[in-house]
Design a protein that fits this description.
By secondary structure, the chain is an alpha+beta fold. The protein has one helix at residues 21-72, and strands spanning 3-4, 11-12, 74-75, 79-80, 127-134, 137-144, 160-163. The longest helix has 52 residues, at 21-72.
């Protein structure tokens, strides 16, 4: 709205402050561009963090399994620690796993060997496989079926595992 200049008595138009449509569009474009860069990086960081958590869990489970085998001569599921066969334990919680409790199949059990068996970062149970194929060799392993959860006995590249020695 025009106002009058007190010194000259003339009408003066003052510029209104604000942003043009082009400026607003440029800001929206920049925010979208930054989000397009940040979101994939955040997703990658989350995947890496979950995989690292699974690896840490597997190291703790490996130690617990080693102690179970030392005390009882058996792996989870009651399998002999030497020449253990091919029967997998798909869920290490409970007595069948032998890590937190004994369902009666473990002689000389001195556990619990771990406070609790966590779920993997993708919400599934960790497994013990006495004949997991690693580089063409069957080895005992503790693992997770990874982000896609594909298993049992359907191992693929996203599995996270640790061989039990």
């Amino acid at each position: 709205m025009p106002s009058q200049d007190p010194a000259s008595g003339r009408r003066v138009h003052r510029a209104q402050s604000g942003y043009t449509l082009a400026e607003i569009m440029m800001v929206v474009l920049l925010v979208g561009l930054l989000a397009g860069i940040a979101i994939p990086a955040l997703q990658k960081a989350r995947r890496t963090a979950r995989t690292n958590r699974a690896k840490a869990d597997l190291r703790a489970l490996d130690q617990a399994i080693a102690q179970l085998a030392f005390d009882t001569g058996q792996y989870p599921g009651g399998l002999p620690a030497v020449g253990s066969g091919d029967t997998e334990t798909w869920d290490l919680t409970g007595g069948a796993g032998g890590l937190t409790e004994n369902d009666g199949r473990f002689q000389s059990w001195r556990g619990p060997y771990i406070k609790s068996v966590p779920q993997d970062p993708w919400g599934a149970a960790y497994f013990f496989d006495p004949d997991y194929r690693v580089d063409g060799i069957m080895r005992p392993a503790v693992g997770s079926f990874g982000p896609n959860g594909l298993g049992p006995n359907l191992y693929d590249a996203d599995d996270v595992y640790l061989t039990v020695d």
